[in-house]
Amino acid sequence: MLQTFGFSLYESKVYEALASSGEPLDAAMVVKHSGVPKAKIYEVLNRLVEKGMVLDTVSEKKKRYTALPLDSLVEKLTRQFQTDVKKLTSSLSHKAVRDDRVWSLKVDESIRAECKQLIQRATRSIRISAWSNDFLEYVPLLEMKEKEGVEIEALVIGQINTKLSCVHSFIPVQEHQGLERYQLIVADQDEMIFAGEEDTGWHAIKTRGQPFVKFFADSFYHDVALTKITQKYVDQLFDDEEIRKMIIRLRY
């Protein structure tokens, strides 16, 4: 029976011999009652002592052994089993396969619903960029997440009124009139959705693939930096025609 718990045949035989004996046994007597070869007996006994299955003592200049009582053995094996199950569960959860696939999603309502779910799942940070009329729909949920301690940073194309702590506003100039609406959400630096408006409607991609998440997170900060620099040095930058054209091209 002990072999079902991972003990070897020799270990099982030695424990059975000691458990069925009414008194402690020395190594020679264990060999006699267990049938384990003499050459192996000390190795097996030492393993059982190390595993807490056998107790040893020195009596009358002889080392003697006795088995851990059955009740104690049952409790030991039960605790060990429960501990092993917890370790297994933890190990498997940590090694869960990450879904790095890029998913495609269409239809405006479906995309907005998935964006809200992504915001809702965030526990540490949210980076969001969108046009003001699209961003407005997410404001109540974002304000709630910020109250929960989630770090929110937003870049809004157009004007917006919100209680959020960190919102950057970009006001397009005349040359930007050809810009297409888009939405970008990066949650916990772990998952992202990017949606763009096309002739046939909205089309989005969603992924947890880290190359994509990092790329779009960097793009968000690129746009924030460009917005802040342009706002601070608007006269100097836009007075230079070459730089003006370059900045216009940089903006999505």
| Relative helix content | 40-55%
- How are helices and strands ordered from N to C? HEHHEEHEHEHHEEEEEHHH
User: How much of the polypeptide forms β-strand, as a percent range?
Assistant: 15-25%
Major sheet: arrangement of strands: 4-10-9-8-5-6-7
Helix segment tally:
10
Label the overall shape: rod-shaped
Report the biggest beta sheet as strand number plus sense, adding barrel if it closes. Answer: 7 strands, mixed
Number of strands: 10
What Rg do the Cα atoms give? Answer: 34 Å
Class based on secondary structure composition and strand pairing: alpha+beta
Regions with little confidence, pLDDT below 50 for 5+ residues:
none
**Can you give the mean pLDDT?**
88
First and last CA, distance: 70 Å
* Oligomer category: single chain
What is shown here, in short?
The protein has about 250 residues and is of the alpha+beta class.
Question: What is this structure's SSE topology?
Answer:
Layout: H1 9-20, E1 25-26, H2 27-34, H3 38-50, E2 54-59, E3 62-67, H4 70-94, E4 102-106, H5 108-121, E5 125-131, H6 132-135, H7 139-147, E6 151-157, E7 167-170, E8 182-187, E9 191-198, E10 201-207, H8 210-232, H9 234-239, H10 241-250
Parallel strand pairs: 5-6, 6-7
Antiparallel strand pairs: 1-3, 2-3, 4-10, 5-8, 8-9, 9-10
Helix pairs in contact: 1-2, 1-3, 2-3
Write up what this structure looks like.
There is one protein chain. Helices cover 49% and strands 23% of the residues. The protein has helices at 9-20, 27-34, 38-50, 70-94, 108-121, 132-135, 139-147, 210-232, 234-239, 241-250; strands at residues 25-26, 54-59, 62-67, 102-106, 125-131, 151-157, 167-170, 182-187, 191-198, 201-207. α1 (9-20) packs across α3 (38-50) and α2 packs across α3. The chain starts with 8 loop residues before the first helix and ends with a helix.
